[in-house]
Design goal:
With about 250 residues, the chain is α/β, with parallel strands linked by helices. About 40% of the residues lie in helices and about 20% in strands. It has two domains: about 160 residues, HAD superfamily/HAD-like (Rossmann fold, 3-Layer(aba) Sandwich); about 70 residues, Trehalose-6-phosphate phosphatase related protein, domain 2 (Alpha-Beta Plaits, 2-Layer Sandwich), CATH 3.30.70. Strand 4 and strand 5 form a beta hairpin. The radius of gyration is 18 Å and the shape is globular. The protein binds ligand L263DTV3. Its EC number is 3.1.3.12. One of its GO terms (molecular function) is metal ion binding.
């Protein structure tokens, strides 16, 4: 083990074995969610920086022959690039898969802006709540609302605003109203297919990652980060363990 997370502990034996197995398969797709996986969850989304060692581990993986590394996020791609600071030949998939091979069209932005206008006064009425306007959705954040009854009430109100043309994406202390029906599972299958990958490693922590865990074939390696029910086949506790996992995989690829 040569990476910075070498001393943080051990991975479960079945996960270590699965990593050793997948490392021998090419082309290999290694894909990861961002918030809660490569970066700890914090109150202000613009302050969610990567955990120490994450950038280095991704850089090692992407340098390996026959390996593609994808960052797959609910964030818009521009935001994800800025907040992560990651630089390298990565595939960037944002807005839960709606941004697959470039920015979205202006027509979607007009629908999103109308939605943001409706939600803004509801959010402004709840101290600590935050409205995040993204390329294909508007997110109502309640992580910093201390009055939990008010937080639940706001999420209910936001839910009620949604008409059937929108896709609701509940997440950790957030409800997103999306103007596309994109999801991470569909985007990952598309990328897997485009690359002709014979195996995928996917790491995620939230409800929107379950779309990916559910659709990836049984030979793929899926990892839930943190607690909660999941369709993933493996689990690690936190972003520090994610770095250990990525370094272990990079060692096996060497
Ligand atoms: O798909 P992801 O990369 O995991 O992005 C999911 C959402 O992440 C962000 O919100 C979450 O992280 C925030 C910062 O730690 C936290 O304050 C918030 O409570 C979490 O829900 C981001 O702001 C959203 O746009 C992403 O969809």
């Amino acid at each position: 083990m040569s990476g910075p997370a070498a001393a943080t502990g051990a991975l479960p034996a079945d996960l270590a074995e699965a990593l050793a197995d997948v490392a021998g398969r090419r082309p290999l797709l290694v894909a990861s969610d961002y918030d809660g996986v490569l970066a700890p969850l914090v109150g202000d989304p613009s302050a969610a920086v990567p955990v120490p060692g994450a950038a280095g581990a991704l850089a090692r993986l992407v340098a390996a022959d026959g390996v593609t590394v994808a960052l797959v996020s609910g964030r818009g791609v521009a935001d994800l690039r800025a907040v992560s600071g990651f630089e390298g030949p990565y595939r960037w998939i944002g807005s839960h898969g709606a941004e697959y091979d470039g920015p979205l069209t202006g027509e979607l932005a007009a629908r999103r802006d109308a939605l943001a206008e409706r939600l803004a006064p509801l959010v402004a009425a709840v101290p600590g709540a935050r409205l995040e306007v993204k390329p294909a959705s508007v997110a109502v954040h309640v992580r910093q609302v201390t009055d939990r009854v008010a937080a639940a009430g706001l999420l209910e109100q936001a839910h009620a605003v949604a008409d059937p043309s929108l896709t609701l994406k509940p997440g950790k202390e957030v409800l997103e109203l999306a103007v596309t029906d994109a999801d991470k599972g569909t985007a990952l299958l598309r990328l897997r297919d485009d690359l002709g990958a014979v195996a995928t490693v996917y790491l995620g922590d939230d409800r929107t990652d379950e779309d990916a865990f559910r659709v990836l074939p049984p030979g793929d390696l899926t990892v839930k980060v943190g607690e909660g029910e999941t369709a993933a086949r493996h689990r690690v506790p936190d972003p520090a363990a994610v770095v250990l996992l990525l370094e272990t995989l990079a060692d096996a690829l060497d």
